[in-house]
């Protein structure tokens, strides 16, 4: 395969990967707290770096350092830009204004989420939709009466009595967070961020997905057109080879 055709095929592979990412974003446009994935093409300098034998190539996105290994022309980063807040009226729906994540925990350990659609289990414990216990400064948060108010500082009050304080975690480098499903992220290492002074907890609200369906559709159309252009190049190359072989066969 010629170098030119190989480059076109690699580009088409990157386009296919980009379409998969965009489709995943669009599928979660209505998912509370969802953070979109952003497909990022690796720069030419990074390609040269890897060709020279580097094990990893680094890049910067949104102020965070990101790393990619392997020969892929495309890498994916998570856009942690906050989504809009929408009122639900459910007292156990919580949203964070500003930076930070709710910490939750199960047998697998700690995880972090912006998806604050919580509920009470049969024991009065505040849990996520998939059952992970929401963490307070002193451990699991239990609301025996089933009714509580939560102020902007994350203090949990039952009949005006303080029974817990939500544990809101920040990260200096959010690239250390990876998805683990159900709107959760796991951290590589310990949280090292300082609390955001502008952070506020909003009871009865959920954070919407940060996916813009209009922008994702435009990106999808652009990517499809780019992929189709690559297809035409491959078809033209194939037709040229056919003509060459036909001419050579005449001799």
Describe the overall structure:
This protein is an alpha+beta fold and 251 residues long. The chain folds into two domains: 3-78 and 226-249, no CATH class; 85-207, no CATH class. Helix content is 28%, strand content 31%. The strands form seven sheets. Strands 7, 8, 11, 12, 16, 17 and 18 form a seven-stranded antiparallel β-sheet that branches. A three-stranded antiparallel β-sheet has the order 13-14-15, with no helix packed on it. A hairpin with a 4-residue loop joins strand 13 and strand 14. The longest helix is centred in the last third of the chain and has 37 residues, at 213-249. It is elongated, with a radius of gyration of 24 Å. The relative contact order is 0.19.
Radius of gyration: 24 Å
* Amino- and carboxy-terminal Cα gap: 24 Å
List segments where confidence is low: pLDDT < 50 over at least 5 consecutive residues: 54-71
Structural class: alpha+beta
Helical segment count: 3
Number of strands: 20
Largest sheet: 7 strands, antiparallel
The whole-number mean of residue pLDDT values reads 82
Q: Please bin the fraction of helical residues.
A: 25-40%
Query: What is the H-and-E element order?
Result: HEHEEEEEEEEEEEEEEEEEEEH
Number of domains: 2
- Give the overall shape, derived from the CA principal axes: elongated
What is the percentage of strand-forming residues?
25-35%
């Amino acid at each position: 395969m010629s170098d030119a055709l190989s480059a076109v095929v690699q580009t088409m592979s990157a386009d296919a990967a980009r379409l998969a990412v965009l489709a995943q974003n669009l599928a979660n446009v209505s998912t509370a707290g969802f953070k979109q994935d952003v497909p990022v093409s690796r720069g030419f300098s990074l390609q040269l770096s890897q060709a020279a034998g580097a094990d990893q190539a680094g890049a910067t996105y949104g102020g965070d350092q990101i790393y990619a290994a392997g020969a892929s022309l495309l890498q994916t980063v998570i856009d942690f830009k906050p989504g809009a807040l929408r009122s639900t009226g459910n007292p156990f729906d919580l949203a964070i204004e500003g930076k930070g994540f709710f910490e939750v925990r199960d047998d697998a350990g700690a995880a972090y989420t912006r998806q604050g659609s919580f509920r009470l289990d049969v024991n009065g414990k505040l849990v996520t939709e998939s059952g992970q216990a929401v963490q307070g400064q002193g451990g699991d948060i239990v609301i025996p009466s089933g009714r509580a108010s939560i102020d902007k500082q994350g203090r949990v009050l039952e009949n005006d009595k303080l029974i817990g304080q939500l544990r809101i975690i920040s990260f200096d480098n959010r690239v250390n967070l990876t998805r683990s499903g159900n709107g959760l992220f796991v951290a590589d290492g310990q949280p090292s961020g300082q609390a955001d002074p502008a952070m506020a907890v909003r009871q009865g609200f959920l954070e919407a997905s940060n996916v813009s369906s209009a922008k994702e559709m435009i990106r999808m159309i652009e990517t499809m057109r780019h992929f189709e252009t690559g297809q035409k190049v491959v078809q033209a190359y194939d037709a040229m080879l056919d003509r060459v072989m036909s001419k050579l066969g005449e001799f």
